[in-house]
Amino acid sequence: MGNGRLVNLYEHFEERAESDRLILRFISESDFEHIKRWSVSPEYLKQWAGPSLTYPLDDEQLVKYLKDANHPGLSDRLIFCAIQEANQQLVGHISFSVIDRVNRSARIGRVVVDPEFQGKGIGKRMMQEMLRIGFEGLNLHRLSLGAFDFNTAALKAYEAVGFKREGVQRESALFGEQYVDCVEMSILDREWTASRNS
Asked: What's one Pfam family the UniProt record gives for this protein (predicted)?
């Protein structure tokens, strides 16, 4: 690690057709317009960002969100954008938060895919790369996340890459006039290693 950037985290990237390769890079202010454009409604923004970002999303909120992030070895948050390598198209956003270097754990969150690219496996591939960075690059032991129970596509994608359901935070968020449950999930380093070797 050096100069505040992640180094050598992509050397073991799974081989794919060139047109299908996806890379993660740290977010920059030049990405803000994309992220704001994807946040099409208060409900959708809350679905992927939780309560800390509010609709309409603006640059001021995003600058605050980035403050003190993306300093490997120091920050408790690493915030990425997903890029299709062939055309350099920005297609998603994802982050690590609550990075605990003593207990070697972190939380994955703020997962959003450009609506034009949804349903094409981008979310699953973003998550696969986050697992590789978390377990190989950051040497973590445990990664966790939460997803609202109505987001069945996300839950299936997370289970497909090895996350296990741990429990439910009942009626944890209010959408309109209805409370919804949040499904808590996690994966351990040994589970990830076993899934790659099978």
From this structure: Acetyltransf_1
List of domains in the chain:
18-144 (3.40.630.30)
Prediction pTM value: 0.89
CA distance 43 to 61: 17
Contacts with 64 (C-beta within 8 Å, 6 or more apart), sequence order: none
- 34-59 pLDDT tens trace: 999 999 999 999 999 999 999 999 99
Single out the residue of 105, 119, 112 nearest to residue 166, CA to CA.
105
- Cα–Cα distances (Å) from 7 to 11, 137, 139, 165, in that order, read 9, 9, 14, 32
- CA distances from residue 138 to 106, 175, 196, 198 in whole angstroms, order as listed: 10, 35, 18, 23
Neighbours of 124 (CB within 10 A): 17
